[in-house]
Amino acid sequence: MEQTLTDSGWRGSPDVWLNAAYETLLDSGVDAVRIQTLSKKLNLARTSFYRSFEDREELLAALLARWREKNTGSILKQANAYADSLVEAILNVSDCWFNNEIFDSKFEFAIRSWAMQSPEILAEVHAADRARIRAIAEMFMRFGESEFAADVRARNIYLLQIGYISMQMSEDIALRMKRMPEYLKGFTGKPPKQKDLDRFFARHGITPEQMEAAHD
Fold first, then answer.
1. Model's pTM, two decimal places?
2. What CATH number did the domain enclosing 6 receive?
3. Which of 117, 145, 179, 196 is 20 to 30 A away from residue 52, measured at CA?
């Protein structure tokens, strides 16, 4: 007979409940993140939840904190990463859009969907947007752009990606990579150096042959 989590005497932990809440948020939205639903999902008694969180609101706050740390934190970190050139700096930020370990696009969509029904969460999202745009703008300013121009260029980069997420665009990664040189030219006004592109493509595991074969 298969041993259940409760049979084994395991009572869960904050991370277990939070991970279950995260998965439920992504799959079904915030309204489905309920203590009873999660207890059934985990095969744990509801009473064990209260050993980890005071109530559902504390669990939701923990979800929001995870999003801030993962997604906003990663953009700020990548925007401040060392770079020899502006193109390299932009590609550091672009790592967020191609690596789910750095930036979780599904989590981003779920939080923004939640914000559509909660003024408090919408305010959190707007604050995150401001912080992210500011970090990318400061990156441009480090390479000599004026504050105003840097803000506009930062918006070009950031709002493009948020558009991808909000529209749930499904696009082959090789095709997106194929478009990167033109995106970079638009972001900076100059064509990128091939060595910068080659490093970027290599760290995301995309070959020239894959890009050549990619099409709409």
1. 0.90
2. 1.10.10
3. 117
Q: How far apart are CA 216 and CA 214, in angstroms?
A: 7
Q: Which of left, alpha, beta for 166 (phi over 0: left; psi -120 to 50: alpha)?
A: alpha
Taking the C-alpha atoms of residue 165 and residue 77, their distance in angstroms, rounded to an integer, is: 20
Cα-flanking dihedrals φ and ψ of residue 58, to 5°? Answer: -70, -35
What's the domain range around 105? 63-213
Whether residue 181 sits in one domain with residue 130: yes
Please, are residues 12 and 5 in contact by the beta-carbon 8 Å criterion?
yes
Cβ neighbour number for residue 27 with a 10 Å cutoff: 10
Q: Give the C-alpha separation, 106 to 29, whole Å.
A: 11
The closest alpha carbon to 85, from 186, 202, 184, 211, belongs to: 184
Task: DSSP letter for 189, please.
Answer: S
Report the range of poorest mean pLDDT among 17-21, 115-119, 126-130, 209-213.
209-213
User: CA torsion 116→121→127→132, rounded to 10°?
Assistant: -70
Assess if residue 47 is contained within a domain.
yes
Residue 22 sits in the same domain as residue 88: no
